[in-house]
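Researcher: Structure for this, please.
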Amino acid sequence: MRHASALRLSIASILLLVSFEAIQAAESDEEPDFKQFDFKLALKKKTRNDKASSFDDDKILSLFFTPKITSRSPVDVKDYKLSLYLIGQSTFDKKLFSFIEVAEYPLIIPAKRKFNPKERTLSVKYNDKGDRVGFKYHSYIMVVKDKKGKTVFVKTSKTQFNKILDAILKLKKGDCFDIKGRKIKLESDHRVYR
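Model: Predicted structure, token format:
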């Protein structure tokens, strides 16, 4: 009698385990809810004078950046892409902006884990005195797209860009745009360091 009872208990345990694994497999096909994720940008800035420049006021801004994402979701993230747009504000016209960097990352995050890619570095040359040339770091936008290229989540560090996201996300690195999201062609290229 004991053996039959133990055997029934073992079979019940196996069936329960198989059912649990089937549920987990089914859940892994679910789409993640990105509201259950914390998106942050770890950003360090270092400014120094450009000693190679013939102008005393030229500066080099080095940005050390890493997107950090923490998942509270029970669903794995795979087949997604994160695009990080670093926005520079013009030193000669505060209503002009440009993408000074567009960094892309394959987004793979196991359930309830963290995404911490390797730190990247960007150097930007500008002059915010005298001649006023270039773009200085202002803010960022993080965009998550699915494997079909559809935008599924956006985070901006400055709410002023929320209304013009559709327009500015069509632009490329180096393109200039105004506060209304219109692409602006600079009349003179001397305002941008290349």
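Researcher: Any notable elements?
Model: Confidence is low (pLDDT under 50) at residues 15-23. The beta strands are 37-49, 59-71, 77-90, 96-109, 114-115, 120-126, 135-145, 151-156, 176-178, 183-184.
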